Amino acid sequence: MDYYLISATAGDRSPAGLLVEEFVLCDDYTAAGIDGTEWVTEIGAWSASADLSRAIRADIDLRSRVTPVSRPEASRAFRMLGGDVLPEEAGLRTLFQERRALPTTSPLNLGNGSSKARRYRILFAGELGETGLANARTALRLEPTGDPRVVGAASANSGGHGFTWELRRIGAGIAWCVDVTARLGSGPVTTLGALLHHHRQAVREQGLIPVTVERFA
To answer: How many CB atoms lie within 10 A of CB 4?
Structure first.
């Protein structure tokens, strides 16, 4: 699950609200939706969060007041906001009231029918500062590419599959993405899911907000 603190003003780490989200994934690990719940301090209760989930990805001003945090950080903030013990994840799932659906389409076939290569894009909203960018390079093990459109690229073999990925900026201060190419072998496909999850969390930990996981081929 992903946890976010919402502050009253930009730059203030004092929490005014708490948002809990979980991506809903299809069998091929693309995102079909986002479940979530919002702790409303004024009424001391959990509430539907689809509108807030959409807003933190679309509203730059609101996003400046959003901080991705770990579960322990969320637990401490929950007490500060008038809650008791933050429910375990199974309990939080029972509080999800409304799913924010994400558009899904069948991937384009960009190669021959025998190809097992898949192309994914993990899209993020927000901007990376110098420290966040350096940390993302380290977490994703990126090397320079010489392409000004690409921050860095890396590759690995794992679980019988071959993977390559690169970090790209989309616009100025608008969005970032991690593009992943997976050449599937004979191993379990769960390795692909684990890699996509790792990359999504590694960049999220640098302050960006994951928007969706798309598949292009």
So the answer is: 25
> In the numeric block, which tokens belong to residue 107?
């991937």
Distances (CA, A) of 95 to 46, 69, 82: 7, 20, 17
Helix (H) or strand (E) holding 109: none
Residue with structure tokens 């989200």? Answer: 21
Strand-pair partners of 39: 18, 46
Maximum alpha-carbon separation in the chain: 57
Give kind and range of the element (H or E) at residue 32: strand 31-40
pLDDT in tens, 14-62: 889 999 999 999 999 999 999 999 998 888 999 999 999 999 999 999 9
Angle (CA) 208-177-71 rounded to 5° is: 35
Contact 213/25 with Cβ under 8 angstroms?
A: yes
* pTM of the full structure: 0.91
